[in-house]
Structure formats: structure tokens, C-alpha cells
Design brief:
It contains no helices and 11 strands. The protein is mainly β. The structure holds FE2/S2 (inorganic) cluster.
């Protein structure tokens, strides 16, 4: 069973509302999105051909991949056209103004 750990990602005050921030806890490409006071953490690699979703567009809770327009719900990671295809969604926590991502599951 892989070991899990909480890895520092970014200072919480660097996250802006409606904006996706790329972070690389332990080298993993993760996208943190702050929306209406909540934070969502998803893989920054599209489930189609691994383009970086950070270059995509965010509308409401939907991020659109810049490469071939696949759309994903940032709350669940689900691909809108086929919910069985998902981006990895990461658990996160805030401690003393810092965001940590749970890695290793
Ligand atoms: S790589 Fe994202 S839609 Fe193709």
C-alpha cells in the first residue's frame, strides 16, 4: 500500500478567486482552483491526452481543456460527456495559511 502524506503546495493567500494555480507537490501536476470561497484540487493533466488544463478556460465549475475542448467538473473531476472518465481529485487541507495536498493514494 503506498504511503500517503500531506505535501505543502502553496500559500493560501496566493490563490485568487476564479483562478487556477498550478502547483507541483512532490512533482505531481495539480491544479488548485478557488471558487466562491471553496478550493478544488484536481490533476492538471487532461484525461484525454494529458494536456495541461491550466491553459484551459474556467466557466462556473467547468474547466475546458485547451487542446481538444474536453470539459470537466472541477468539483468531481468528471468528464461531462462520460462520467466514468475522471480527473484525479486530490484532498487538501489548510494549516496556518498554507495549503497541503494529500499525495500517495
Ligand atoms: S488533451 Fe485535453 S481534450 Fe485532448
Amino acid at each position: 500500500m503506498p504511503e500517503t502524506s500531506w505535501v505543502f503546495a502553496i500559500e493560501e493567500n496566493k490563490l485568487q478567486d476564479n483562478f487556477a494555480s498550478m502547483v507541483f507537490p512532490k512533482g505531481l501536476p495539480v491544479l488548485l482552483i478557488k471558487k466562491a470561497g471553496e478550493i478544488y484540487a484536481i490533476s492538471n493533466k487532461c484525461a484525454h491526452m494529458a494536456c495541461a488544463l491550466a491553459g484551459g478556460t474556467l466557466k462556473d465549475y467547468i474547466i475546458r481543456c485547451p487542446c481538444h475542448d474536453w470539459r470537466f467538473d472541477i468539483r468531481t473531476g468528471e468528464f461531462l460527456d462520460a462520467a466514468e472518465i475522471k480527473l484525479k481529485v486530490y484532498e487538501w487541507k489548510s494549516s496556518e495559511g498554507k495549503i497541503f495536498i494529500k499525495i500517495g493514494e
